[in-house]
Specification:
Helix content is 0%, strand content 54%. The protein is mainly β.
Length: 118
């Protein structure tokens, strides 16, 4: 069973930066695509960014392109989300996910809160 634990959330002023981390355990991490979703109060969960299991191919939501960077370290079983030039509309709970490249079975973390003040 894959377990995902996020960290790095917090309160930051607009224009600031945060780096989220997601530590995975339980299975062979390198066979999972990884990424991030977020959910703001009263809104549906939305895709933020993802990185393929090989660590080369990345995808971003239009709203974060040029500001956020997703990366991973398979040796550490960890995926990261570097968030720069944060905006109040980035305020949300950020969830890490992992999807098995073969079975498409997915797993989720418990979420970490990011709050951006104006």
């Amino acid at each position: 069973q894959v377990q995902l634990v996020e960290s790095g959330g917090g309160l930051v002023q607009a224009g600031g930066s945060l780096r989220l981390s997601c530590a995975a355990s339980g299975r062979t991490f390198s066979r999972y695509d990884m990424g991030w979703y977020r959910q703001a109060p009263g809104k549906e969960r939305e895709f933020v960014a993802s990185i393929r299991w090989g660590g080369v191919s990345t995808t971003y939501a239009d709203s974060v392109k040029g500001r956020f960077t997703v990366s991973r370290d398979n040796a550490k079983n960890t995926v990261y989300l570097q968030m720069n030039t944060l905006k109040p509309e980035d305020t949300a709970t950020y969830y890490c996910f992992a999807e098995n490249v073969g079975t498409r079975e997915d797993h989720w973390g418990q979420g970490t809160q990011v709050t951006v003040s104006s």
